[in-house]
Amino acid sequence: MIQSAMLAEKNKCSSGLVCASLLHDYGHFILDDPDQLVNKKEDGKHEDVAYLYLKKYFKKSVVEPIKIHVKAKRYLARNKKYFNILSQASKVSLHLQGGVMSEEEAEKFEHEKYFDDAIKLRKFDEAAKKTGIKMKDINDYKNLLNSNLL
Ligand SMILES: [Fe+2]
Asked: Ligand 1 centroid vs 103 CA: distance in angstroms?
């Protein structure tokens, strides 16, 4: 999540999108054991869990892209090249999350207000799997988080 935020900063994204990137998988901290859900072949809907919690505190520009970041993955997975770069765990969860989007769903999704931000967030998420890079600390984001509160 920190790496995703670092990528959003590097790409000069809005403060809201940097914050969304930083918090996008917050739902995993709230759900008891998301991996167990995957093992049970259930989707924990971590994007909804995060959205419902974070929307009490953060601006729409933060929580709306988070809410649809799984949809963005389902949308992007229509592209074979993108699908192939997904991790094995992400391919398994994609199936549980409803699989690759249909053309009809995709067209509807493109009209959502936070479509562009959700796609960017998802791409940062995919690229944020590097090891051995210099990481920022969560405390470095205190001001950013504060400035995006309601
Ligand atoms: Fe996620």
From this structure: 22
